[in-house]
Design goal:
Layout: H1 3-14, H2 18-34, H3 44-77, H4 82-114, H5 126-141, H6 145-152, H7 158-163, H8 167-183, H9 189-211, H10 213-225
Helix pairs in contact: 1-2, 2-10, 3-8, 3-9, 3-10, 4-8
């Protein structure tokens, strides 16, 4: 599922104004069907929809990382009990490792079973077909794929992971960092206070963004369907 559809589902399930979201979703689908893009030529109307929808997505993505980082650090640092911290941290890491393992296993299994790109239609560009075959061959022959995935969960440079919005390495680092803060007692107060303020400010920004949820989802859905 593409990111924008994941966001739409999450908003539809979790936002207090969910009936507005549902209405915007239906209206966007209707408008997209009524005014489709013909022969790949976008009208000014479609360009406006594209701009508004992408702007809304960018605003949401803007707050994701600071919200996750500050929430996890504040949550872990506030627990205090080292035994409880160890259990929670271990469970969170195991959860992400398990989910990632399942995802890779399913992807590799489906590739082996269906061999995408094997019988590519002749109308597809030969270079594109070759790219698909190379990707499938890489999945089938790379024996270290799973171990490399685990290594990639450990960020070499947390700042670089933040810049690239690599969520899993960020979460792994934040869990470790939050646990360390919880174990150094009063010395952690300045840092924890900073992230408490960051979390509060990010939540306020999120509230502002949610005011734009209805027109943003309408524009995004209408452009995607159209």
């Amino acid at each position: 599922m593409k990111l924008h559809w994941q966001i739409l589902v999450a908003l539809g399930l979790g936002v207090k104004r969910n009936w507005h979201i549902f209405f915007a979703l239906l209206a966007g689908i209707t408008v997209g069907i009524m005014f489709p893009i013909v022969n790949g030529q976008q009208t000014f109307f479609h360009e406006v929809l594209s701009f508004a929808g992408q702007a809304f997505i960018n605003l949401i993505q803007m707050v994701v990382i600071p919200l996750i980082v500050s929430a996890i650090i504040v949550g872990i640092a506030s627990l205090g009990d080292s035994k409880q911290l160890g259990k929670i941290g271990a469970r969170m890491l195991l959860y992400y490792i398990l989910i990632a393992t399942i995802a890779v296993s399913i992807g590799a299994g489906l590739s082996l079973a269906f061999k995408p790109g094997k019988n590519v239609a002749a109308t597809i560009n030969q270079q594109q077909a070759e790219t698909v075959r190379e990707q499938v061959a890489h999945i089938q022959t790379d024996k270290t794929n799973l171990s490399q995935m685990y290594l990639n969960m450990i960020p070499k440079n947390p700042i670089e992971s933040l810049a690239k919005a690599e969520l899993v390495p960020i979460i792994v680092f934040v869990i470790i960092f939050g646990t360390a803060l919880a174990m150094i007692g009063d010395l952690s107060r300045p840092v924890v206070s900073f992230f408490e303020s960051t979390f509060a400010a990010t939540m306020r920004v999120t509230d502002w963004i949610m005011v734009l949820a209805t027109p943003g989802i309408f524009a995004l859905t209408a452009f995607t369907v159209g």
